[in-house]
Amino acid sequence: MTKPKVLVFSGYGLNSEEETKYAFDWAGGSADIIHINDIIDKKNYLLDHQILAFPGGFAYGDDTGSGNAYALKVRNHLWNQIMKFLDKDHLIIGICNGFQILVNLGLLPAISEYGEREVGLMHNKQARYVVRFVDLKVETAKSPWLFKSDIFSIPVANGEGRLSIPQKILEKLKQQNMIALRYFKGEMSNYLDLPANPNGSDEDIAGLIDSSGKVFGLMPHPERAMFFNQMPNWPLMKEKYKRQGKKLPNEGSGFKIFQNAIRYFS
């Protein structure tokens, strides 16, 4: 069986390409890391892939706002290709800075059409960079990236991760089941004794999908929680599994997101 091809964007300050490529490869895909200038130069190269990934980082040093400058480069040079890409029933993910890029592009949430910015990712409520694990619950059943029953414990690492949503847009997101993920008080928040919401995002929202469910963005980093021993409470859980006579799991919960996407093309 041919492995789904994944194109991982790079260049100008994106810095999580290797982890993102590894995650897709380990989930059963075949991922390539390509600089955005090379994607622009290779006409329709983007269309040879089934999944596009905009990874985390600090594109253009977050000048003019996180993800804004990179989004402008994509819009000016690749917009028509991305529209054709989505017409082919393919998938797009944006992680952290990648989510900010998708929001600035108007690919998320894109309630009525692509291209208009409808929400914002602002400075964290505590006005500082936040790095820690959080707990996430899935809020929608309409995306191939997610299953409604899934719960994730994965890290955040951002300074502009606070999702700000106008009330009218928020109501439409709820009506159309486009809220993908919410922070909640789960295993990691309790273990670390920290609030569920790490940045003050409206209604604890951590991720969004578009109306089709094919475009997905989130602030936390699933590619940094691929293995069980990356969890902060791993030593404790290891001892619990040992005493209960259970086999230690290999995967971390972030693995599911990449696995779901690859299985969409199986």
From TrEMBL:
<keyword id="KW-0378">Hydrolase</keyword>
<protein>
    <submittedName>
        <fullName>Uncharacterized protein</fullName>
    </submittedName>
</protein>
<dbReference type="GO" id="GO:0004642">
    <property type="term" value="F:phosphoribosylformylglycinamidine synthase activity"/>
</dbReference>
<dbReference type="Pfam" id="PF13507">
    <property type="entry name" value="GATase_5"/>
</dbReference>
<dbReference type="GO" id="GO:0005524">
    <property type="term" value="F:ATP binding"/>
</dbReference>
<keyword id="KW-0067">ATP-binding</keyword>
<dbReference type="GO" id="GO:0006189">
    <property type="term" value="P:'de novo' IMP biosynthetic process"/>
</dbReference>
<keyword id="KW-0658">Purine biosynthesis</keyword>
<keyword id="KW-0963">Cytoplasm</keyword>
<dbReference type="InterPro" id="IPR010075">
    <property type="entry name" value="PRibForGlyAmidine_synth_PurQ"/>
</dbReference>
<dbReference type="GO" id="GO:0005737">
    <property type="term" value="C:cytoplasm"/>
</dbReference>
<dbReference type="InterPro" id="IPR029062">
    <property type="entry name" value="Class_I_gatase-like"/>
</dbReference>
<keyword id="KW-0436">Ligase</keyword>
<keyword id="KW-0315">Glutamine amidotransferase</keyword>
<dbReference type="GO" id="GO:0016787">
    <property type="term" value="F:hydrolase activity"/>
</dbReference>
<keyword id="KW-0547">Nucleotide-binding</keyword>
